[in-house]
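Here is one chain, start to finish.
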Amino acid sequence: MIITPGANQLLVLQTGITIGHKAAIYNVIGVTSSMFIHAVISGLGISLIIMQSPALYNGIKLLGAGYIVYLGANSLVNAYRLHERKMVTSNGVANATEPVCESSSKSLTKGFTTNVLNIQTSFVFLSIFPQYMNQHNSVWAQSLFLTLVFILLLLLWYSVLIALISKARLYLLKPEIQKWIKAITGSLLVGFGMRMLFRH
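Its structure:
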């Protein structure tokens, strides 16, 4: 589940390539911290209420899908701006290394919001975690333990991903390549958002 491509991975991939590994790390911190929110609302039974209420379920799904589509659309706009920008050096090659900056809080918020509004994440706590729990021990303690294990595995996977991105980024800084990265990942994010919206 963790390594299956999704909106979170696309966000981290795009951020790591276009902005840098530090911003991608804050994306991951946002994603992992939102897991505790899912764990708490699941432990309180709120997730089950949401799943059984079409209005609440569709409302949260709409918010989550809308945010992912927004990120994708914003990426497509940036790709178009790169396409339109005509910065040419004396040798006729586009200025390739103009840095793109993003505050750590913004990067963290993107990761947090993308995952906390992802209704599919709730299924992890409602359908998978109970298979590894028993009635003889504290439900909260077991839920916390499984959440920490899940987060540890997630951090391990994203550490590998960010390390690979960091090594490859030096070869991907040309505006033409950045344009296509933003265009492709933006289109995929819009696609993931639309799939989330219409998925039952």
